[in-house]
Amino acid sequence: MDDAVSARFAPSRRTVLGAGLALAGSGAWAASPVVPRIRRIASAFDRMVAPGARIEVIATGIRWAEGPVWVENGQYLLFSDPPANIVRRWRKGAAAAPFLSPSGAGGTDPKLIREPGANGLSLDAGGKLLIANSGGRSLDRLDLRTRRREVLADRYQGKRFNSPNDMHVARSGAIYFTDPPYGLEGGDASSLKEQPVNGVYRRLPDGTVELLEGTLTRPNGIALSPDERRLYVSVSDEVSPRIMVYDLDAAGRPLGGRVWLDAKPMQAGGAPGLPDGMKVARDGTLVCSVPGGMMFLSPEAEPLGLISTGAPIANCAFGEGGRALFMTANDRILRLPLRPGWQG
């Protein structure tokens, strides 16, 4: 995106994800009016979101909303609140309510663990909930019926993960995930940090964990293209915010990476947030958290549309058979109706 477009679509209030979290905890964002806005940037956006569509606020009062996932077998949305250590459930016609508490690690020392709860959520092929356990520093799997929980991975080469953040499940069952230090108080300077890098990893179905990328400062959101030949990784680095793309070989390992979206110009005017969570639609359209909100982009990184609130929007998930996009927007959850048939 060029500077002119960035300036045109950048809200006037500046923050980054860390600052947004502090404000959410203090209630500063909640005290300000938040009016979700839909901004059409290119005509292609109309085949995804109908002109005149309206965004619904379906939940509020969250310390920091993250990790949404739609559970089709049950028709409900789960989303996490990492600092509150809760996963909540929302069903149409009912208020959001606690579903899992603690969602991550219980009894942690706040002087050491900044985000004790779950962060990213996903589902495996069998419908079990996968949890990026920030406080527990592990990847977990939860049976939604019995609530039985197991740790899938908590170490690489014998050293504890930092704080797993987000994931994408490949058709093979392999789990691609990111491991920034956001859950640790002090980040890279934390006394608990064992990994020398903030890595992008892959857990294979046999339990083997591979480090795929170890050079990124703040790997965050992660997604595969529909054909699983590309891996996208958000880098929520305030100085160099960007989204990387990696071509994958036949075994699903990266051949080399390049900048897919330079988000630095998008910070112009004080746009809140950083590259964070993302999802990829069936046609390859990316829906990505960027400075300024949640943006729809073509596979060639052409901006199509922007959802903004004046506060960071951290993550998103398709739901309701592809008829809705759910967004975790700081202290609230948004629901955007989508064109029937586009993602369903």
A few lines on this structure:
With 344 residues, the protein is mainly beta. It has helices spanning 3-9, 17-26; strands at residues 37-40, 56-59, 66-71, 76-81, 86-90, 97-100, 118-123, 129-133, 138-142, 149-153, 155-156, 159-160, 167-169, 175-178, 200-203, 209-213, 219-224, 230-235, 242-248, 254-262, 278-280, 286-290, 293-297, 303-308, 315-319, 324-329, 332-337. It has a single domain (3-337), classed as Neuraminidase (6 Propeller), CATH 2.120.10.
**CATH architecture descriptor name:** 6 Propeller
CATH secondary-structure class: Mainly Beta
- Percent of residues in beta strands? 35-45%
Q: What is the name of the CATH topology?
A: Neuraminidase
Low-confidence stretches: 1-32
Domain tally: 1
The CATH homologous superfamily is termed: TolB, C-terminal domain
Overall radius of gyration: 18 Å
How are the strands of the biggest sheet laid out side by side?
A: 1-24-23-22-21
H/E series: HHEEEEEEEEEEEEEEEEEEEEEEEEEEE
What is the share of helical residues?
under 10%
Q: Could you give the count of β-strands?
A: 27
Secondary structure tally, helices: 2
Describe the biggest sheet? 5 strands, antiparallel
- Straight-line N-to-C gap: 28 Å
Could you list some keywords that capture this structure?
four-stranded antiparallel sheet; single chain; 2 helices; mainly beta; Neuraminidase
